[in-house]
Amino acid sequence: KALQPLFKMSYSCSKVGHPRPGHPYKGGNFSAFLPANKEGRKTAKLLKRAFECGLTFQIKSCNGEERVTWGLIPHKTSWDGGKARNGYPDAQYLHEVGTVL
């Protein structure tokens, strides 16, 4: 069984440091998967803290529209498919994301 943090970002207005400060950007729904074990729960707490600090997402400009995208912190967005598809199995993921966090 897996933990599944769900992030929902709605429309909002960008701030200083974003591609076009003061302009609206389009949000979205973002899901990430973690194993339901001690290390997975520890990682979930670190990811929550990163989210609260504004490190989980970034705003990118695409075709004249600003959109929310994943930031530089790696997330497993699929329960399968392996490392190449941001999924499991990936024996090194929790260590790698822990290092980034």
Automatic annotation (TrEMBL):
<dbReference type="GO" id="GO:0008270">
    <property type="term" value="F:zinc ion binding"/>
</dbReference>
<feature type="domain" description="Deltex C-terminal">
    <location>
        <begin position="7"/>
        <end position="98"/>
    </location>
</feature>
<keyword id="KW-0479">Metal-binding</keyword>
<dbReference type="GO" id="GO:0007219">
    <property type="term" value="P:Notch signaling pathway"/>
</dbReference>
<keyword id="KW-0808">Transferase</keyword>
<dbReference type="GO" id="GO:0016567">
    <property type="term" value="P:protein ubiquitination"/>
</dbReference>
<keyword id="KW-0863">Zinc-finger</keyword>
<dbReference type="InterPro" id="IPR039396">
    <property type="entry name" value="Deltex_C"/>
</dbReference>
<dbReference type="InterPro" id="IPR039398">
    <property type="entry name" value="Deltex_fam"/>
</dbReference>
<keyword id="KW-0436">Ligase</keyword>
<dbReference type="GO" id="GO:0016874">
    <property type="term" value="F:ligase activity"/>
</dbReference>
<dbReference type="GO" id="GO:0005737">
    <property type="term" value="C:cytoplasm"/>
</dbReference>
<keyword id="KW-0862">Zinc</keyword>
<dbReference type="InterPro" id="IPR039399">
    <property type="entry name" value="Deltex_C_sf"/>
</dbReference>
<dbReference type="GO" id="GO:0061630">
    <property type="term" value="F:ubiquitin protein ligase activity"/>
</dbReference>
<protein>
    <recommendedName>
        <fullName>E3 ubiquitin-protein ligase</fullName>
        <ecNumber>2.3.2.27</ecNumber>
    </recommendedName>
</protein>
<keyword id="KW-0963">Cytoplasm</keyword>
<comment type="similarity">
    <text>Belongs to the Deltex family.</text>
</comment>
<dbReference type="Pfam" id="PF18102">
    <property type="entry name" value="DTC"/>
</dbReference>
<comment type="pathway">
    <text>Protein modification; protein ubiquitination.</text>
</comment>
